[in-house]
Write a structure and sequence with these properties.
The chain is of the alpha+beta class. The chain has 17 helices and 16 strands. A hairpin with a 5-residue loop joins strand 8 and strand 9. Helix 10 packs antiparallel against helix 12.
Length: about 700
C-alpha cells in the first residue's frame, strides 16, 4: 500500500525543487571555484589541446595558497564570546554566561567548524554554521552544539535580501542518507518486532521514495592533478545503497506566551503555553482572587518540520527568534548568491596558467635544440648521424664541402614576459588582500623590525574587513547559543571550562546553593526571556597578533611598573619551557623572600647589639664612677684616719715633751728652787684639740 503524501512533505519537496532551480547559476560558479581551489584549472578539451602542442597542462596554482593563508589569518585565534548585561545587577550572571558559552564552544570543537565555514566562505562565497541540540550527548540529557554545514545543503528563497537571510519565510536544510542511516536515527521507520508473537512488520522505509541526486556538485574541470570531489567519491563505492533525502524546513511562527505578575510582590514570570497550563493546575483560583494577573503575548519563534519522502519525521518549536542556520556571505550581491574570492581571481589564474605553459614550452624547446644539417653532408645517412650525435664519444663523418651541421640559437623570452607572470601573481594576492610579505617571503620585508610590523599591520587591513563581516555572523551564533542554552539547560548541571592557562571556571545551574558550590545560576526561572543579555564577539579576537609586538607592549608595561616580570616572561616568543622557568622563579622568589627576612632579622639584631653596646658603655661608666666614689670614700677615710693618727702621735709627742718639762714647770710654781724653763717655753695647753 502506497504511503499518502503528507502536506508538509509536499511543501518541503516543492520548495526544494523551486529554490534548487533558482540557484543553478550560482552552483555552476561554485563548482568552478571548487575546481580551481583543488588545482583542476583545465577542462578536458583544454588539456587535450595543450598536450597536442607538447605543452604541459600543469597549472601554476596561486589560488589555494592564498586561500590557506587567508584562512590562517582569519582563524589565528578562537573567537571570544562576551555576555553583556542589560542591568548592572546582572554582571555576575553575565560572567556565568560567558563560561557557559565557552563550554559550548569547546564541546562543539568550534575552532574546527568555524575554519570549515570560512573555507566555504572563501572558496564558494558562502559558508554556514548551524546550532542544534545533540539529544544523545551527556547520556541522553542533551547538549547545545553547533557545526558547519556545506553550502550546497542549504536552500534559501531567491527573494531574500537580508545579508543573513533573516527576512526569508523559511530555510531548507537537505541531508542525503542511506536507508540504514535514517533507520538508526529514526527507528520507527524500520522493521518492528512484536514482543509477544515475534512477528516482524516491514518498516515503512521500504515504501518511501528515494532520492538520486546529491547535495555536492560534480567537478567540471579535469587535469593530471585532478582531485575527487565529494560527489565523485561516492562513485568509488562498489555497493549500491538506496539514498533518501531528509528536508528540514525552518520557518517563523507566532507562539503564545503568558506574562504572570504577582499582585503583592510585583514579581513577574514568563510562561509558555504548556507551562501556563501546569501553573493553572497547581495554583487554582489565583486569578479569580486577584492574587495574580496575567497577559497573553505573541512572540516570534522558529518552527521546524522535518520530512523524508512522503512522511513527517518530527515537528517542534525552537527557543529562538532567529534562524539557527547562519550564513557567512563573502562578496554580498544583495541576493542569496554571493561571490567568492576565487571567482574574482579565476581569470587572472587562467592567464597565469597560459604564461606558465608558454614558459615551460620555451624551456623544453631550448633544452632540445634543433640540428640543421646541409643536404648531403651526412656521410653515413641522417639516421646514423642522429644516433651518433647523441653519443658523447662518437666520431661523426661529414662532408664539409656541403656545409657543417649547427644549432640555431633559440630566441630568449623577453623580460616583460616574466614581469607579466609576477604581475599576475601579485594581482591574485592583491585580490585576496594578502601582500607577499604575509606569505613569509623575506625579500619583500623591510629592513627593520618596526618597519615589518608596520607593513604587517597595513597588510592585515583587508583581512580585518572580511573579519568584520564574519563577526556579524558569529554574533548571531552567540545569541543562538544563548537562547538554545536557556531553553535546554533547565536541569541541574555543572559547566566546567578549561582556560588556555589550564585554569578551570565552574558554573552550576538550577542547583540549591551550598557552601561547596562556587557559582549558582537559575536558568529555568527565565528560560523564556530571550533578551536578558546581549551576546557578541569581541572585535578582532580571531586576528593574529605579532608576538614580538605584544612582548614589547608587555615589557614597556613592566618597566612602567604596571605588571610583574612573570607576565613579561609568558609573552616572550623565544622561551619555550616557560613552566620550568616560572617554577624556578617561584623558588628563587621564595628564597629571596626568606633571605630578605633573614637580612631584616640581622639588621634588627645589629641594632639591638649597638643599643646593648651603648648601654654597656654607660654601665661601665656608672661602675667606674661608683668605684671612684668608693675609692674616694676610702681615701677620705684613710686620710681622716691618718690625720687622727698623726694628731694623736703629735699629741703624744707634746705630752712627752711636757712630761720632760714638768720639773721645770714645777720650778716656776716654786721660786725658791731657782730653776727656770728654757726660753720660749710658756704654759702648756690642757687638751690636744686646741693644738
Amino acid at each position: 500500500m502506497a504511503i499518502e503524501l503528507h502536506p508538509n512533505a509536499k511543501e518541503n519537496q516543492e520548495l526544494h525543487r523551486r529554490w534548487r532551480d533558482a540557484r543553478q547559476e550560482w552552483e555552476i560558479e561554485a563548482r568552478n571555484d571548487i575546481d580551481f581551489y583543488h588545482g583542476n584549472h583545465f577542462s578536458n578539451a583544454e588539456s587535450e589541446e595543450l598536450q597536442s602542442r607538447n605543452q604541459a597542462d600543469v597549472p601554476m596554482d596561486r589560488i589555494s595558497p592564498a586561500i590557506e593563508k587567508l584562512k590562517s589569518v582569519l582563524t589565528a585565534k578562537p573567537p571570544v564570546f562576551t555576555a553583556i548585561p542589560r542591568e548592572d545587577s546582572d554582571v555576575k550572571v553575565a560572567s556565568c554566561w560567558r563560561t557557559i558559552l565557552g563550554y559550548v564552544w569547546q564541546i562543539s570543537n568550534g575552532d574546527v567548524h568555524v575554519k570549515d565555514a570560512i573555507h566555504d566562505y572563501a572558496v564558494t562565497g558562502l559558508g554556514y554554521l548551524y546550532v542544534y541540540i545533540d539529544n544523545e550527548a551527556d547520556f541522553g540529557k542533551g547538549e547545545v552544539k553547533f557545526t558547519s554545514v556545506n553550502p550546497f545543503r542549504v536552500y534559501v528563497p531567491p527573494s531574500s535580501r537580508d545579508r543573513f537571510f533573516q527576512d526569508a519565510d523559511s530555510i531548507l536544510l537537505s541531508t542525503i542518507l542511506t536507508g540504514q542511516q535514517i533507520v538508526n536515527l529514526y527507528p520507527f521507520l524500520g522493521a518492528q518486532i512484536n514482543d509477544d508473537t515475534g512477528e516482524v512488520t516491514p518498516g515503512i522505509i521500504e515504501e518511501l521514495s528515494t532520492y538520486s541526486e546529491e547535495d555536492f556538485p560534480d567537478a567540471q574541470n579535469k587535469n593530471s592533478m585532478s582531485i575527487h570531489t565529494p560527489s565523485e567519491v561516492k562513485d568509488l563505492d562498489t555497493y549500491d545503497f538506496e539514498k533518501y533525502q531528509i528536508l528540514e524546513r525552518f520557518y517563523k511562527t507566532k507562539v503564545p506566551f503568558y506574562r504572570v505578575v504577582d499582585s503583592r510582590s510585583g514579581e513577574e514570570m514568563i510562561l509558555s503555553d504548556q507551562e501556563f497550563a501546569v501553573f493553572l493546575t497547581e495554583n487554582p483560583g489565583v486569578f479569580e482572587r486577584e492574587l495574580m494577573s496575567f497577559e497573553e503575548v505573541l512572540q516570534t519563534r522558529i518552527g521546524v518540520v522535518a520530512t523524508v519522502g512522503e512522511v513527517v519525521l518530527y515537528e517542534t518549536v525552537l527557543n529562538t527568534d532567529v534562524y539557527p542556520i547562519v550564513p557567512l556571505p563573502n562578496i554580498w550581491s544583495g541576493t542569496p548568491y554571493p561571490k567568492s574570492d576565487v571567482s574574482r581571481t579565476r581569470p587572472m589564474q587562467r592567464l597565469l596558467n597560459k604564461l606558465w605553459s608558454l614558459a615551460l614550452s620555451h624551456a623544453q624547446a631550448s633544452a632540445g635544440l634543433k640540428l640543421l644539417v646541409p643536404l648531403g653532408s651526412a656521410v653515413n645517412g641522417l639516421d646514423q648521424l642522429e644516433k651518433d650525435w647523441a653519443n658523447p664519444n662518437a666520431v661523426i663523418e661529414v662532408d664539409t664541402s656541403q656545409g657543417e651541421p649547427h644549432y640555431p640559437a633559440p630566441t630568449p623570452l623577453a623580460s616583460e614576459f616574466y614581469r607579466l607572470i609576477e604581475q599576475a601573481e601579485f594581482y591574485i594576492d592583491f585580490i585576496f588582500g594578502l601582500p607577499e610579505m604575509m606569505h613569509g617571503f623575506s625579500e619583500k620585508a623591510p629592513d627593520t623590525v618596526r618597519g615589518t610590523e608596520r607593513m604587517m599591520m597595513l597588510g592585515s587591513e583587508r583581512p580585518k574587513s572580511k573579519l568584520r563581516d564574519i563577526e556579524f555572523g558569529l554574533n548571531i551564533i552567540g545569541r543562538l547559543l544563548y537562547s538554545f542554552s536557556k531553553g535546554h539547560y533547565t536541569f541541574q548541571k555543572m559547566f566546567r571550562l578549561i582556560q588556555p592557562n589550564n585554569n578551570i571556571n565552574e558554573v552550576s545551574v538550577n542547583m540549591l546553593y551550598t557552601d561547596s558550590t562556587q557559582t549558582v545560576m537559575d536558568i529555568a526561572k527565565d528560560r523564556n526571556n530571550i533578551g536578558q543579555h546581549d551576546v557578541r564577539i569581541e572585535p578582532g579576537s580571531t586576528l593574529p597578533t605579532s608576538k614580538w609586538a605584544e612582548y614589547g607592549v608587555y615589557f614597556e608595561a613592566y618597566q612602567a611598573g604596571l605588571i610583574d616580570r612573570t607576565e613579561v616572561l609568558k609573552k616572550n616568543p623565544e622561551i619555550l619551557d616557560k613552566e620550568s622557568i616560572l617554577s624556578r622563579m617561584s623558588e628563587i622568589a621564595q628564597l629571596q623572600q626568606a633571605n630578605g627576612q633573614l637580612q631584616q632579622q640581622i639588621k634588627e639584631l645589629r641594632g639591638d647589639l649597638q643599643t646593648a653596646q651603648r648601654e654597656s658603655v654607660q654601665d661601665k661608666k656608672r661602675v667606674a664612677v661608683e668605684k671612684f666614689k668608693r675609692d674616694l670614700t676610702e681615701v677620705r677615710a684613710d686620710a681622716k684616719a691618718d690625720k687622727k693618727v698623726q694628731t694623736n702621735k703629735f699629741a703624744d709627742t707634746v705630752k712627752f715633751e711636757l712630761e720632760k718639762l714638768k720639773p721645770y714647770m714645777n720650778g716656776l710654781e716654786n721660786p725658791n728652787t731657782g730653776d727656770t724653763p728654757p726660753e720660749g717655753i710658756g704654759s702648756a695647753p690642757e687638751n690636744n684639740e686646741t693644738l
